[in-house]
Amino acid sequence: MNTMTSENSLARRFPEDFIWGVATSSFQIEGAAQEDGKGESIWDRFCRQPGAIADHSNGDVACDHYHRLDSDLDLIASLGVNAYRFSVSWPRVQPTGSGAWNEAGLAFYERLVDGLLARGIKPHLTLNHWDLPQALQDQGGWNARETVDHFVEYALGMYRRLGSRLAAITTHNEPWVVAVLGHEQGIFAPGIKSRKVTLQVAHHLLLSHGKAVQALRKEGCKVPLGIVLNLSPIEPASDSAEDRASAIKADAAGRRWYADPLFKGSYPAEVWADMGDDVPTVLPGDMDIIATPIDYLGVNYYTRQVVGASGHVDTKTSGLPLTEMGWEIYAKGLTDLLLLLHRDYALPAVLITENGGAFKDPVINGQVNDADRVDYLRTHISAMADAMDQGVPMAGYMVWSLMDNFEWASGYAKRFGIVHVDYETLKRTPKQSAHWYRDFLDCVRAIQKTPRRA
Ligand code: FCB
After folding, report:
1. Any residues with Cβ below 6 Å from ligand 1, and which?
2. What angle in degrees, to the nearest 10, is found between the helix axes of 332-344 and 257-264?
3. The pLDDT of residue 3
4. By three-state DSSP, how is residue 208 classified?
5. pTM (2 d.p.)
């Protein structure tokens, strides 16, 4: 099959109203960390801890998106996407996380949203992609129940300003990462290492999600509301009873600890029983609030996990190709994951809110021929279509990421963009994958315009 035919047949598998986008987050691209009244975030602070970031970098400049908004909007439009997923830096709009608002910060996001709409692109806003105001961390951060109320106030403030111009509002991005990497492993901000704190943080994130959804709806918000989880199917290392039991347990502690409360209103009992004194304080009514129905679930998928009786198995030696993160490329895992979610829960619309890979991406003669990323995207989009064919209510797909950016503890060394960023000059160069995505979306549109035979 030649490439055009295969892209055409892939494009044919999607309905007309499917959402196609690219995703970013505030801290990873904006820069302007100390400008126009922005407050400090926990990631600004964390980057200053010696050894926290692999290349000793920080988000002070990042992709300088804050100062390049208009040309970046043109860049997004040039890809032919119909949606853009971005996040708001809470300390940019509310420097201390409560009380006074920062007009310059609000105006920036207003320009972003209006700029997207003017280009025919749907704004998908995420409230928390990890850059909590440091002032709130100083009062206990997500471990403190008061932060839940501050988050609701922030959500309402953003809605009041941007309102029905938004196409979607996501409360949190990947609560598991905030809780576990930030508070158990301590490798992400705020760099705490305590399982007890981790579980309380996870509970407060979920609770603040539910409370924000309720408060927004009470305010009259008709914008679709959802949350984004990072999920992987967990496979047993072998068919042995021990390995299978361990995989089921790991799935309950990871995926189900977050998804069960949202869709069933309870934590998995077997994991709760294992946590001893570390279980979170849950007040009466909390679980019902968390289970408030949502309009969509966002799923971030990168790779599968394999678990055996002695714990996680390193998939680096599985023989399958790896990305630069050392993550195994396993597209079928996306189908498996979506079917698993569909089996376990009465799902609302599902969006793949992040999917993509880091690759070496050398610039040669002004071009980046990232054939490995093109292949990654094509196979994963196809894997998503396989799940859709089997009844999963898929509504959209977003590539991570629009452009190379600050990859958290890995700094700028890992490049996930379909657009290359030269960090010396900040020049953006669309990679081959950006051209491929644009051509694929052209195919999608062309097919939609062709009258179908009866
Ligand atoms: C996800 C994050 C995103 C990006 C990708 C690679 O966990 O949501 O910001 O770092 O991983």
Report:
1. 25, 28, 173-174, 177, 230, 300, 354, 400, 407-408, 416
2. 40
3. 64
4. helix
5. 0.97
